[in-house]
Amino acid sequence: MAIRQGVGTLARGVSLAAIIVVAAACAAAQPNIRSDYDSSANFSQYRTYGIMPGAGRSPTGGDYSTLIAQRIEAAVSREMEARGYTRSATPDLLVNFSVTVQNIQKVSSVPTAGPPAYNYRYGAYRGWPTYSYETWVREYEEGTLLIDIVDASRQQLVWEAAGTGRITKQKLDNIETTISTAVARLFTQYPFRAGGA
User: Which CATH number covers residue 28?
Assistant: First the structure.
């Protein structure tokens, strides 16, 4: 598994608002969470972690971290330390995170009961089958929060998780809790502890 291009920075063009709603989507009920890890990696040798240089920088390319990125980093640190890892300037593992947002359009056709002129039949008896359909189009935004863990010495991706969900604004009132919940849900897929298999 090779490290993906651009792994060190947040996707360009993703606004601060988009990052917020992606975290909210991943913290919402029933996000689609998936993860994978390198089965050839010796996870028992990893005891320390660090945040990948450049992770969480401003999406516009500035040299500062957004407040949202700082909260994601803090949540990642809590999860790593809860698993026994110690933050280090020369870490065994480097952690990176990223977000993406895409517009989703779902089109569905449903049969109709026929023109309103036929409503007099309703409940009394059935007429001939109708072949009339209505087309419904639903548009919404879907966000994905990704977390990568990389073997620092080999520069090799060893674990990744992604949480995808429909973006809503219900979780935005308390964004710190929303982000913490989203990151924690991804880390439920991380089966390792520091110094252990």
Answer: 3.30.160.670
